[in-house]
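User: Show me a protein chain along with its predicted structure.
Assistant: Here is one chain, sequence first, then structure tokens.
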Amino acid sequence: MNQISNRIFTLICAMFISLNFFQSLSQAANNPPAEGEKFPEIRLAIPQKGDDSKYLGLDNEKFFQIPKIKAELVLVEVFSMYCPFCQKEAPAVNNLYKLVQSDQNLSKKIKLLGIGVGNSNYEVEAFGKHYAVPFPLLPDPDYKIHDAMGQVRTPYFIAVRIFPDGSHKVVYSQAGGFGDAKEFLSSLLSKAKMK
């Protein structure tokens, strides 16, 4: 009876260790992109609204990836129409956009893009209209993009530095609001080593 108990105990311990190992692998795969890493290889649908694809400098293809945007720095906001923190942050993000656009030099170098996790095209459009969001917003109704970005909480901001040779790296990756738009922009430029 003791041998059977020992074998069962050993089997349970082995199963527990295996379960913990696979859970830690799963959690590692679901981490958001960290500073210094590449942005996940996510295919995004070309925006259909107005001049959104022109603003991003995209060709007339069906899909694109963040490093294909014609910019030196892309700030991606992960939001949800139903997130009260995203709603509260919307005016600050709009201020950041206006600040960038008011500078002739920066307006060519920095682009903003929002991804509405769990939101349909209709919900993304409703959010954009209600908060007068001036930059492109893309839907992620099935959470595929959200999963690829590590299932981040909303709002979440990821800044991607794109280099002339086409390579790129994440220079900012953080949950929550960013506070004062002017200070945040200055911090982003410093992290991206841009003037």
